[in-house]
Design goal:
The chain is α+β, with helices and mostly antiparallel strands and 564 residues long. The chain contains 20 helices and 19 strands.
């Protein structure tokens, strides 16, 4: 039977109102307001497309941006390069002599903050090019925490906290850089150096969430996120001096782990029957904390007891319970890539040139996840309307969909609502993924990697990884030749695509802090649909995520470093 939207569609922004200017492209360059400031953007590690975007953005705001390095340049802006690397590059490509070099070497943060302020800001020490160091002396044992030593002609000062090296024309110096309490101002990769503490705090956060204690949940989540971002391993309590968002409770947990290797409170929670039961029930697709707690109070403890009970389940919960074994198994990167290919072929059948993007944890470079999130848009706004129904109905007839629930677009035009939930047209579904297709794609990836590696040893490592990924899939599927996988398909109009991409990439805490930062630091309202400036009373269009960060005056953080 064909699946139809449950909610009445809201047209959102009419196609006729979408112009090139609305998308932030092809707008006229503004007059030069700050002629005394000349900016040169270093393309190395920034990329040509991003450089073009930033150049256009700066010129619209009245900044003078030079295409070539010259004596009129006052600020050399670089991203992910050291001062030495930039100087080497300028000397090699432009013949710039280091002797008498007067331009300021600044990080991209100075540029984005200046764009947000609408004027060139003074260069502070934190804007100067930086390299992260560990606090225990990773450069040939030269540096040590809490002491001062000379390095060449410069001096270094190291404080208890995160230590950075910054390069100036006068010297090489080390200073303490404060850690922001906002996750959107920190770079957090997947592999952190304090996993022992972050996993314990994660359990406490989960327990608080299951008890519907939002305050405690946020406190433990923030503490865990801060520890994830540290570039060094905490080995004593003094290492936490000056670190924000670490409350008394979190510090007590860390102290106990440092002293005993474990935390008794965490161990007790893991053995707690209610915690175990609610974790088990909320792992069912469509079951929230309130429902899980209700079942627990009714005496239910296991999935078998739930199946044997007379509890009335929603259609979503029935599907979640039916395919629970598969849905509780990790989704591999290969499975996610395959599902993206399947969806791309399906949408292109009805609407060529449609863009399908893999978001969520996989966009943050995770190898495993709980589900697959796909964001869908089309360059011609309005053409995407109704696409989801066509695609889901066709895939259902092809036997690819085990469950699907379509929700219509409920976005109220140009809403200023900064809420965590979006109003896009979407389908929450369960895919029937053929195991044979996964194995074939794994083999193709392995063959491609082997041809690139040209190294027998590397090939063996990749084969081991592939086999491990396949074992996860096979174990989940059991004797079946397919696996049930949770897939969310989200349709975003092109003018809202950048905001939707940012919102659906995560992580959860990173997105929350982005909205908080926008509200409290910039007096703006950020959602997955738009950014509204409450002071100017205007919506700020953005064609890319970089544009959104620039509007907020934030340094751009790539998806792989948003694992807060």
């Amino acid at each position: 039977m064909a699946l139809l939207p449950r909610k009445k569609r809201c047209k959102g922004i009419p196609t006729s109102t979408v112009s090139q200017d609305h998308l932030g492209r092809n707008s006229p360059v503004g007059e030069v307001k700050f002629g005394e400031v000349g900016i040169f953007l270093v393309e190395r590690r920034m990329g040509s497309s991003r450089r073009r975007f930033l150049t256009e953005l700066a010129r619209k705001k009245g900044f003078r941006v030079e295409e070539q390095m010259s004596e009129s340049v006052t600020h050399v802006v670089s991203e992910n390069n050291t001062g030495k690397e930039v100087l080497d590059l300028l000397e090699k490509r432009n013949g710039i002599s280091r002797t008498g070099f007067t331009a300021a070497l600044v990080d991209i943060a100075w540029f984005t903050e200046s764009m947000g302020a609408g004027r060139p800001l003074e260069v502070e020490s934190r804007h100067q090019l930086q390299i992260v160091l560990t606090p225990h002396g990773s450069i040939a044992g030269v540096f040590s925490r809490g002491k001062k030593k000379s390095v060449g002609e410069g001096r270094n000062q190291i404080y208890s906290g995160v230590v950075f090296l910054h390069v100036t024309r006068e010297a090489v110096a080390v200073t303490e850089v404060s850690i922001s309490s906002y996750a959107c101002q920190r770079r957090t990769v997947l592999k952190n150096k304090n996993r022992l503490f972050t996993e314990a705090l994660k359990v406490l956060a989960e327990a608080a969430e299951l008890n519907e204690s939002e305050g405690r949940y946020l406190a433990f989540s923030k503490a865990s996120s801060i520890l994830k971002s540290l570039p060094y391993t905490v080995t004593k309590m003094e290492d936490l001096q000056g670190i924000p968002s670490l409350g008394v409770h979190s510090r007590k947990v860390i102290k106990e782990i440092l002293e005993d290797g474990t935390c008794s409170e965490v161990e007790n929670i893991l053995q707690n029957e209610r915690y175990q039961t609610l974790k088990r029930f909320t792992s069912i697709f469509g079951v929230g904390v309130k429902t899980a707690d209700k079942w627990y109070r009714e005496g239910l403890r296991t999935l078998d007891e739930l199946r044997a009970s007379n509890v009335k389940l929603t259609r979503e919960q029935e599907a979640g319970l039916l395919y629970h074994n598969d849905l509780s198994a990790p989704v591999t990167r290969t499975e996610a890539d395959l599902i993206k290919q399947i969806v791309e072929r399906a949408v292109h059948k009805f609407l060529p040139a449609t863009v399908v993007t893999l978001t969520g944890g996989f966009r943050r470079e995770k190898e495993f996840g709980h589900d697959v999130d796909l964001l869908i848009t089309h360059p011609e706004e309005g053409k995407e309307e109704g696409l989801i129904c066509q695609v889901i109905n066709w895939m259902t007839t092809e036997g690819l969909i085990l469950y699907g629930d379509i929700t219509g677009n409920s976005y109220k035009g140009r809403s200023k609502d900064p809420g965590i939930f979006d109003h896009f047209e979407k389908c929450l579904s369960i895919f029937k993924l053929k195991k044979e297709l996964v194995n074939n794609l794994e083999s193709e990836k392995l063959s491609h990697c082997d041809s690139l590696a040209g190294d027998k040893t590397r090939g063996i490592d990749l084969a081991d990884h592939t086999e491990a990924a396949q074992q996860v899939t096979v174990a989940a599927a059991g004797s079946k030749d397919w696996k049930a996988v949770r897939v969310d398909l989200v349709i975003a109009p092109y003018s809202q695509y950048a905001y939707a991409l940012l919102g659906w990439t995560g992580s959860r805490l990173f997105e929350r802090d982005l909205r908080r930062y926008a509200k409290h630091s910039k007096n703006m309202s950020l959602s997955s649909h738009s950014l509204f400036d409450n002071e100017q009373n205007i919506f700020l269009p953005a064609a890319t995520e970089e544009g959104i960060f620039a509007h907020l005056g934030l340094e751009y953080i790539p998806p792989r470093e948003r694992n807060a």
